[in-house]
Amino acid sequence: MQLLIMRHGEAGWHSLDQERTLTEAGRSQTAECAARIAASPWRPEQIWSSPYVRARQTAAIVSEILNCPVDEKAFMTPDDDPGLLLDALLENQFSPLMLISHMPLVGSLATLLVDGHRRGIPFMTAQAVVLDMPVIGPGCADLKTQFLP
């Protein structure tokens, strides 16, 4: 399985975290990263997105550029357990699949899949990485490349 993990674009401030929206810079950096993915061999078949506004907005931009459907997943918010996402990946039929979510979840998931631990690596806003997993499980993925805005 090939998996793209992307952090949402730059977001502004809001009193409710789940209501934060993308800034103009966030929209621009998201489109730039999506265009790089579109020119690569790792175009996703489907996108899974967090239900938070900034992730849904990021997914909409990426979806339009890549002509790819989006499926919103309730278990992809910032503080969700990456183990829940790992369980969902075991049931997944799409490859490449793209996940659009938040820190610390994207960092924790990436290190869980590559290194087998959940300490997490930092992701810039609108950054995406490509993982290749012959078997889905902790420590089973290889980092193939990354896309930066």
Short description:
This protein is of the alpha/beta class.
Characterization of the model:
By secondary structure, the protein is an alpha/beta fold. It has a single domain, classed as Phosphoglycerate mutase-like (Rossmann fold, 3-Layer(aba) Sandwich). The chain has 4 helices and 6 strands. The protein has a 6-stranded mixed sheet, sandwiched between helices. Helix 3 crosses helix 4. The chain is globular and about 40 Å long. The two termini are 24 Å apart. 40% of the residues are buried.
- Count all strands and give the number: 6
Largest sheet: 6 strands, mixed
Strand order of the largest sheet: 3-2-4-1-5-6
Order of helices and strands: EHEHEHEHEE
GO molecular function: protein histidine phosphatase activity
InterPro entries: His_Pase_superF_clade-1 (IPR013078), His_PPase_superfam (IPR029033), SixA (IPR004449)
Protein name: Phosphohistidine phosphatase SixA
Pfam family, one: His_Phos_1
